[in-house]
């Protein structure tokens, strides 16, 4: 067989297979007879330089002898020399070349040998060795041929390794997806289902296997999920939504874009959390309702005490203290009931709102409070701003809460700036103050129920700890988001964004 034909045959063989053991066997099967060798071996190394695969033409050698041969030839033999020097070599007569080690018990009759390294990306990935019982069998022409074969084999070895690595990673990923408690669904950018793990199939009662190229609306009959993907694809941004299932369960779903793939939705079962939240809301509503009447009675009777007869200054202070405490408790109850309504989606009347007008209207009352405290309010509001869909009363409540906090935590002589602008299909509003600021460790908790910053500067400032939670709940009910930036001693910025609407 000519060298050209041999190289073509080897290339065809190597390019048609990705199984490493078969590739190595094919290389030896074609190479040994091409140079009239008697026996041969090929070894491949892993990233740590250890032998990961080896093929020997001579069959029947016990495993311990194979390990002994490999260990010897790589540490002090011809193969080790080739690897160390990164070049091929011919041993014309093993009796007169110190690079050849006599093998145990003369298991392979050898007179001459040849070996070449498999080099890929400047790294030795293996070594090919052939032997013959007679001296002076191999020559420089054989070395050139084997070097060409080794170069092709090195490419094939890398491809096989990459293919095996991909298979192993796919197997790991599949095992994770199969065992995951969360429902996971992947689509391409056209809405065709690429993957549904068992939890997703069970949740949406999807048949298995799905037809290739099945569209999401054909595979899943759930309006909430379809709406989530439609909203995510239209905006091109991650989206979140609660998914209601026919069996009464609720999933919290996040749809996220994946470059060059499409979209992935991960859904967690939050049914137990929804039940706990409802129990909490019911409890708060009941307690708040039951407390309002006694508090009103206390407030009424303290107002009647002076009418029963003269009271001294000490008694007057006691009464004022009682009334102040009743007012604080009443404010807390009102806030709790208000929050419960917002969380339940009650009292929301959605209209098309002109945000620049709404913001200016919401500044009237706080501006008077700020003036009394010696605080100036500045505005930087683009006009006209795009329209948003929202409840005007609730959005004014958001502004009132943010401005009220800014006034409370900003000392006399300070400044509050209200800015509003449009960007990326959103109307963005920020309230910035020059107040006491908030420590980084507290900022993550600011929008949680009942959280209040505890510091010497805030100990005398009253509040329920519910104002910012109400803000967050209202804005999220409008499909928006909230945030805070703050630096102690410098001031704080509280902001929110609302999606623009095209409905007139």
Q: How far is it from the N-terminal to the C-terminal residue, by CA? A: 81 Å
Helix content, binned percent: 40-55%
Spans of at least 5 consecutive residues with low confidence: none
Total number of domains: 4
Question: Any overview of this molecule?
Answer:
With 504 residues, this protein is α+β, with helices and mostly antiparallel strands. The protein has 4 domains: 3-169, 2-Layer Sandwich (Beta-Lactamase), CATH 3.30.450.40; 180-269, Beta-Lactamase (2-Layer Sandwich), CATH 3.30.450.20; 273-344, Helix Hairpins; 351-499, Histidine kinase-like ATPase, C-terminal domain (Heat Shock Protein 90). The protein contains 15 helices and 17 strands. It has a 5-stranded antiparallel sheet, with helices on both faces. A 5-stranded antiparallel sheet has the order 7-6-10-9-8, sandwiched between helices. A hairpin with a 2-residue loop joins strand 14 (415-423) and strand 15 (426-433). The radius of gyration is 39 Å and the shape is elongated. The relative contact order is 0.06. The model has no long low-confidence stretch (mean pLDDT 83).
């Amino acid at each position: 067989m000519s060298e050209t034909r041999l190289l073509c045959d080897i290339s065809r063989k190597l390019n048609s297979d990705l199984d490493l053991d078969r590739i190595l066997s094919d290389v030896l099967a074609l190479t040994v007879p091409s140079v009239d060798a008697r026996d041969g071996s090929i070894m491949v190394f892993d990233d740590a330089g250890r032998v990961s695969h080896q093929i020997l033409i001579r069959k029947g050698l016990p495993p311990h002898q194979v390990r002994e041969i490999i260990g010897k030839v790589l540490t002090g033999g011809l193969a080790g020399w080739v690897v160390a020097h990164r070049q091929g070599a011919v041993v014309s007569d093993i009796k007169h070349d110190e690079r050849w080690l006599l093998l145990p018990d003369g298991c392979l009759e050898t007179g001459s040998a040849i070996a070449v390294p498999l080099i890929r990306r400047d790294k030795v990935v293996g070594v090919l060795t052939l032997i013959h019982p007679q001296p002076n069998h191999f020559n420089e022409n054989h070395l050139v041929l084997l070097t060409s074969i080794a170069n092709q084999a090195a490419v094939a070895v890398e491809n096989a390794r990459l293919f095996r690595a991909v298979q192993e990673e796919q197997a790991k990923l599949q095992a994770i997806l199969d065992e995951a408690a969360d429902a996971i669904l992947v689509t391409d950018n056209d809405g065709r289902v690429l993957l549904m793990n068992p939890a997703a199939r069970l949740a949406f009662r999807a048949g298995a296997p799905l037809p290739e190229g099945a569209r999401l609306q054909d595979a899943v009959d759930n309006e909430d999920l379809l709406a989530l993907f439609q909203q995510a694809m239209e905006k091109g941004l991650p989206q979140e939504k609660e998914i209601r299932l026919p069996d009464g369960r609720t999933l919290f779903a996040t749809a996220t874009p994946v470059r060059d793939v499409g979209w992935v939705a991960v859904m967690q079962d939050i049914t137990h959390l929804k039940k706990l939240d409802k129990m909490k809301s019911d409890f708060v509503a009941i307690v708040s309702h039951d407390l309002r009447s006694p508090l009103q009675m206390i407030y009424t009777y303290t107002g009647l005490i002076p009418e029963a007869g003269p009271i001294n200054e000490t008694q007057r202070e006691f009464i004022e203290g009682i009334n102040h405490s009743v007012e604080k408790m009443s404010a807390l109850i009102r806030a709790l009931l208000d929050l419960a309504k917002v969380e339940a989606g009650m009292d929301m009347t959605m209209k098309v709102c002109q945000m620049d007008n709404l913001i200016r209207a919401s500044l009237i009352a706080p501006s008077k409070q700020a003036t009394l405290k010696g605080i100036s309010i500045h505005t930087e509001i683009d006009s006209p701003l795009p329209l948003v869909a929202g409840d005007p009363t609730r959005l004014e409540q958001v502004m009132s809460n943010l401005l009220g906090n800014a006034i409370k935590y900003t000392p006399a002589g300070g400044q509050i700036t209200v800015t509003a602008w449009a960007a990326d299909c959103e109307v963005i509003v920020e309230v910035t103050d020059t107040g006491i600021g908030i420590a980084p460790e507290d900022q993550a908790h600011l929008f949680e129920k009942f959280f209040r910053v505890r510091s010497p500067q805030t100990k005398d400032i009253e509040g329920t700890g519910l104002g910012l939670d109400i803000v967050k709940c209202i804005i999220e009910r409008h499909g928006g988001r909230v945030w805070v930036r703050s630096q102690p001693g410098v001031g704080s910025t509280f902001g929110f964004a609302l999606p623009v609407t095209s409905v007139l």
